Amino acid sequence: MKDLLPLCGVFLFLLSSCTKDRVDQLTNKGTDPTDVPIQKGVLVINEILSTGSPDWIEIYNPNSQRIKMEGGKWFITDNLGNPEKFQLPDTAIKANGYLLIPCDGTGVQGATIETNFSLSSAGEEAGLFYKQGSLITVIDSTTFPALPSGTSFGRQPNGTGSFKTLNKQSPEATND
User: Fold this and answer.
1) 14, 50, 87, 91 - which has most CB atoms within 10 Å?
2) For residue 145, is the peptide bond before it cis, meaning its omega torsion is within 30 degrees of 0?
3) What pLDDT, on a 0 to 100 scale, did the predictor assign at position 112?
4) Residues 53 and 20 in one domain
């Protein structure tokens, strides 16, 4: 028993020097191991329809893990000079999945997300931003041209390529 006293002292010192964050990290409490670190390109704007009813922006998760989008931290805009134009609610995008965001100008958030802006058929900007404290990170952005009716502006190959005018719209599906 006497031999264990020094070990107990070391254990108590180590235990008292652990911060809550470190304990949470070690026990995985308060974290989701399936979440991917938030950084530029973790999600991509994959396709845009500006001549629809409603217009929409499609966000794609190219990762093999889901992305948790915590409300109050994620924003979408049609004006890169105003990155916090529309705050997205709590949601998640499954691995290799899509989030279709109608851009109808109503700002209604119920069963679906509907932005407080609509997209210009004459072309404009689209951006996805993440806010941590006062730091705002551009996750992805693009400028799209005027689009002929019935077309969209999307990445080819899906999720990774450059943007092109697409003759076939593919909401929540691979861009062909």
Assistant:
1) 50
2) no
3) 74
4) no
CA–CA dist 43, 62 (Å, integer): 7
Tell whether pTM > 0.90.
no
Name the residue range of residue 24's domain: 1-31
Token pair belonging to 147 = 């689009």
Structure tokens at 85: 């134009």
User: Do residues 114 and 155 share a domain?
Assistant: yes
Query: Number of structural domains, the chain?
Result: 2
* Pair of tokens at residue 79: 């004006």
The rounded radius of gyration (Å) of the Cα atoms in the chain is 22
Q: Which residues of 7-45 are buried (b: 16+ CB within 10 A; e: fewer)?
A: eeeeeeeeeeeeeeeeeeeeeeeeeeeeebebeeebbbb
Instruction: Say which residues have a Cβ less than 8 Å from residue 117's Cβ, sequence separation at least 6.
Output: 77, 78, 79, 85, 86, 103, 105
> What are the Cα distances from residue 128, in Å, to 33, 87, 123, 140, 176?
24, 10, 17, 5, 23
Mean pLDDT of residues grouped by 10 in the chain (176 residues)?
50 41 34 67 97 93 94 96 95 96 83 88 97 95 95 96 95 93
Strand pairing report for 123-132 and 44-49? unpaired
